[in-house]
Specification:
It contains 17 helices and 10 strands. It is of the alpha/beta class and 339 residues long. The longest helix has 29 residues, at 2-30. It has helices spanning 2-30, 41-58, 69-78, 94-102, 125-130, 137-142, 166-177, 180-183, 193-206, 219-223, 237-244, 268-273, 275-283, 288-301, 305-315, 317-320, 326-337; strands at residues 32-38, 61-67, 84-89, 106-111, 118-124, 156-159, 185-188, 212-216, 226-228, 262-267. The chain has a 3-stranded antiparallel β-sheet. It has a 3-stranded antiparallel β-sheet with strand order 8-5-9. Strands 1-2 form a two-stranded parallel sheet.
């Protein structure tokens, strides 16, 4: 009898230690993970969501480190860290990312913004409600006198991208391609991102006309309903890349802005060693519309990325649970309930 008890005890202990070893192995497969906390709001929000889910759902030891597009992508290739860049606007580092993937140093998990970054020329929704023709460039040009310049009532105002930003080139080249100067518009440099956002806010508060460049996802487009003006041209990706986006664009042609590809990028080591977390990152994506509203909430509540991530996890479980297997989603839900 004693031998039988001893045998059962040894078997039980073996099973327990085996289970513990498997649990430990699962943790070791993920282990310590570094996540780039980029210096803009949407990227910081996503980074904090990833940290929470990887830590509580997959047992990772997740840590946020400061990041930015060029230095982060370079560091991932040359030093193998950080492990994850949750929101990489790949258009600006396209060749670098492609080379990193080719050399098996980087892996692309999926889209962090499901419909990509969005750029365009916009007018307020209330203007289109009053005159549906204003959702087209022909309608805007026909009504140039509506868009009164703040310093010269004889010309129309077009608010461009701030000087020094990458979008300054594209907005000015498309201004020329559309011949907006000939139509009676004058291009206004808003001076800064805050100046451009402020011009929209002022127009909206007074229900005044506004026409200019903006992009999404942003808090501004979360707060103020805007309509992207249709140029009627479709998208010419090659011409946009080869001419519209460059300073030396001698003969710009009309094209809508192509979507900016916004991906989640990891090191190849992470992709190979942490397959389940990598699968989560390949499914984790947010629409521009939802991100716009989240960014507006962040601004209204002066919330940082961590607070915004907690707000998202508490308020929108139906979104993040769709990214996860049920057992993992249950663990994350337990942790969310303790916030």
């Amino acid at each position: 009898m004693n031998k039988q008890i001893l045998s059962v005890s040894i078997l039980t202990l073996g099973l327990m230690s085996g289970g513990f070893s498997q649990s430990l192995m699962a943790k070791e497969q993920c282990g310590k993970v570094t996540i780039a906390d980029m210096n803009w709001s949407s990227a910081s929000l996503i980074a904090n969501v990833d940290r929470f889910i990887l830590e509580h759902g997959y047992g990772c030891e997740a840590e946020l480190i400061p990041g930015d597009t060029m230095p982060t992508s370079t560091s991932m290739i040359e030093k193998g860290e950080p492990d994850i860049a949750p929101e990489m606007w790949t258009n600006s580092v396209k060749e670098l990312i492609e080379k990193g993937v080719e050399d098996k140093r980087l892996a692309v998990a999926g889209n962090s913004l499901s419909d990509g970054g969005e750029e365009g020329f916009w007018v307020p929704q209330y203007m289109v409600d009053a005159d549906p023709s204003l959702k087209t460039i022909q309608g805007v040009i026909k009504n140039v006198k509506l868009f009164e310049h703040p310093e010269d009532p004889e010309v129309g105002a077009f608010y461009g991208c701030p000087a020094g930003w990458g979008c300054q080139l594209s907005s000015e080249n498309l201004f020329r391609a559309l011949k907006l100067d000939e139509a009676g518009f004058e291009l206004i440099d808003p001076g800064s991102g805050a100046g451009l956002a402020g011009s929209i806010a002022r127009a909206y508060e007074r229900k005044q006309p506004w026409f200019g460049y903006y992009w999404a996802p942003t808090a501004v487009l979360g707060k103020y309903k805007m309509v992207k003006v249709d140029f009627g041209s479709g998208i010419d990706q090659a011409h946009f890349t080869d001419c519209i986006a460059k300073a030396e664009c001698a003969a710009p042609k009309v094209t809508m802005y192509p979507s900016s590809i916004v991906k989640t990028v990891t090191t190849m080591d992470f992709a190979e060693q942490a397959k389940a977390p990598f699968e989560y990152l390949s499914k984790r994506a947010v629409t521009n519309e939802k991100m716009n509203s989240l960014l507006a909430w962040m601004e209204d509540n002066q919330a940082d990325g961590q607070i915004a991530a907690e707000h998202f996890l508490i308020t929108y479980p139906e979104i993040w649970q769709s990214w996860l297997p049920k057992p993992v989603a249950s663990k994350v839900a337990d942790a969310v309930n303790e916030l």
